Amino acid sequence: MTRDPLVERMRAFGTTIFTEMSALALSTGSINLGQGFPDTDGPAEMLDAVARHGLANQYPPLYGIPALRTAIVGHERRFWGLDRDPDGEVVVTAGATEAVAAAILGLCEPGDEVVCFEPYYDSYAASITLAGAVRRPVTLRPGPDGRYRFDEDELRAAFGPRTRMVLLNSPHNPTGKVFTRAELTLIAELCQENDVYAVTDEVYEHLVFTDAAEPHVPLASLPGMGERTLRISSAGKTFSCTGWKVGWATGPAALVATVARVKQFLTFVNAGPLQPAVAVALGLPDEYFSGFRAGLQARRDRLVGGLTEAGFAVLPSEGTYFVTADITPLGGTDGADFCRGLPARCGVVAVPTQVFYDHQEAGRHLIRFAFCKREEVIDEAAQRLTKLSR
Ligand SMILES: Cc1ncc(COP(=O)(O)O)c(C=O)c1O
What we know:
CATH architecture of the largest domain: 3-Layer(aba) Sandwich
Bound molecules: pyridoxal-5'-phosphate
CATH class of the largest domain: Alpha Beta
Structural class: alpha/beta
Helix content: 25-40%
CATH superfamily of the largest domain: Type I PLP-dependent aspartate aminotransferase-like (Major domain)
CATH topology of the largest domain: Aspartate Aminotransferase, domain 2
Order of helices and strands: HEHHEHEHEEEHEHEEHEHHHEEHEEEH
Number of domains: 2
Largest sheet: 7 strands, mixed
Strand order of the largest sheet: 2-10-9-8-7-3-4
Radius of gyration: 20 Å
Mean pLDDT: 96
Distance between the termini: 53 Å
Oligomer: single chain
Number of strands: 15
């Protein structure tokens, strides 16, 4: 049995770049600014709640415990003015990743097309492929002011008779772009004209910085979109608990039921002991969310200062945990080579963004740094990076 046992359609998906770069960080003792996980704990109220509710050791309901579903709906109403029913219009999932996968597997027939914006989060391509669907990427490119944008004609051309859904991530990883209301309005019009669904990944919904061109707007809140949008988020980023993998999807009952139907046979349920604690976290006062954002913004500024001093051309990051940098001024041409060499040169790990594109050329000269790390870690990384220009 020498043949690769993996199904043919998954063979293009090797070890993820995060695994490769995190292993490199470990083996070289480098500071890992590659993977987007915080190095501090989430809010004490949430962590204390785990201890208080720690006896929930059996299967929770398929859609999630009522307290969490109510908290998810209340949080969406408080911050985004959305109005969903906790009974039937929300389902708890194993992170946003499972919600995205279940939505694609549940909505796409083989050959159906998914319009998405590249660079994209790496699980999207794998889930689309697992479903036998086809991705139709629209490329985000930095404009003259460094802000990433897409070409309207390219987006229009991506729609066709087999388009089933638009998969939109805003605030956007890895670019730090926050889609503007005008861009969202165009996407909404095209969804309605072509009668397709929208699936939105909003895991960074609370991480939009005060100098962003515009605030975050959920696509579901635009006219005509509530009835065709599945909105996905998770606790991982907002409450610094990426390992908990508590996510959710909200939307019209039929779309939520589609996710639940697939989830039923993937994981059935998840994170029973953690669900009550996430309900507590979602109900924290506004100051928690604004303080969290301000803390990240300060760390972004520290890292951007360091990267600029090191000689990178840093692109504006309006939100998320990430900032992208152009390696051209440092003589780099290929981000993957650059990132593989970075630990030996200065003891810092970043990830090449080209791996998030179908059209890799568009991102060849760009690499991504995560700033969701303690200030002293960022300062040390910035110090090390100055070696590049010496
Ligand atoms: C855009 C995006 N979506 C989804 C996820 C994963 O979310 P979760 O851990 O809740 O599955 C990430 C994590 O990096 C992300 O950046």
